[in-house]
């Protein structure tokens, strides 16, 4: 009798392309990561509006794109960029437990600032929802817009990595200026405002966001100091 048993087909040969596809597939970025970066560089308004209202297959999925670049930025901050060294050794600086605790908190913040700054996306979206009313969009759509913008900020962060390594304190100021400029550029292209008005509205969004973040970090630092001082004595 003929052998009718089925045998599994042989897997395809492994090449660099299949390895790359596997790695990108972890983040569902195999279709459009570079195209998404190009689109967000050249025509962010058109690309994001098309993603929102017409075709979501041309850009990388927004959450995958966001977490992908945040993860890479966090890896570089933790392992490559010497932000912690700028703040001194918490075991050597400061005589009081409160001073040492404050410096220790600063070290944690510098080390994990990329995932911490990820929290600015929903906060930014709240303020952009109220500052940018033309055209009227849902809050969830503002989340998508600001997720792509934040992802591009992380991409800029990657490009500036060599400068961060050799001159972290001066580069950070330039980074904030460049990312603010990109946000203005993206908002001008996305929303129905003249350039000057869009820039001023973005300035308002930025000021409110940084005020909220400053307050949250201050509260977190005070809680951290209280716990460290109380339980170290």
Task: Outline the fold blueprint.
Layout: H1 16-26, H2 33-42, H3 44-53, H4 62-79, H5 97-111, H6 113-117, H7 120-131, H8 139-159, H9 161-166, H10 168-190, H11 195-232
Q: Concise description?
A:
By secondary structure, the chain is mainly α. The chain has helices at 16-26, 33-42, 44-53, 62-79, 97-111, 113-117, 120-131, 139-159, 161-166, 168-190, 195-232.
Give a structural overview.
The chain is an all-alpha fold and about 230 residues long. It has helices at about 15-25, 35-40, 45-55, 60-80, 95-110, 115, 120-130, 140-160, 160-165, 170-190, 195-230. The mean pLDDT is about 85.
Write down the overall geometry.
globular
Instruction: List the uncertain runs.
Output: none
Radius of gyration: 22 Å
Q: What is the beta-strand fraction?
A: under 5%
Features:
single chain; 233 residues; mainly alpha
